[in-house]
Amino acid sequence: MRRCLAIAVALFTAALPAAAAVKQSAPDGFIVEHRLHIAATPAQAWATLAQPARWWPREHTWSGDPANLSLSLTLGGCFCERWPDGGAEHGHVILLRRNELVRLSAALGPLQDMAVTGVLSIAIAPKDDGSEAVVTYRVSGTPAHALDKLATVVDQVIGLQFGGWAALDGSAAEKRTAAKKRP
Question: Which domains can be identified in the chain, with CATH numbers?
């Protein structure tokens, strides 16, 4: 168990920004939440969400290449990573409201090997000149998992992963706006 915890911490701590969105933490589980401003409509943000190969960080793939990632935004759809000699299911869609909410059953990264349960919810709503996305990750296990020791690191990783989505959609929206202003 200690070895799994050490591996999880090592994998999660590569190139992480500071974040402080741990909503709840205990040895048997945690909840982290990130609110992201996206300079795009909910439909545009949704379309970009379905392309994790464009925004998911390389360091947080099993294959080392985000081009191997896909996310099928359909009920039962797979958030998968496929490479020539293998692959991984990072999660699958358990609830879907197009352009508004997707919920995945997903024990991400080293949490998968710990046999814990993870639920990742991504809610998108119009706000101001774009959208607000709320990414909530709930993980539960047993007290023996000592999940409270991982909560802060997982929070940082979720911020890094989905911060890439928000930033990509913002830059894409800026390009669309600039193109519209050209004579």
Answer: 2-12+22-181 (3.30.530.20)
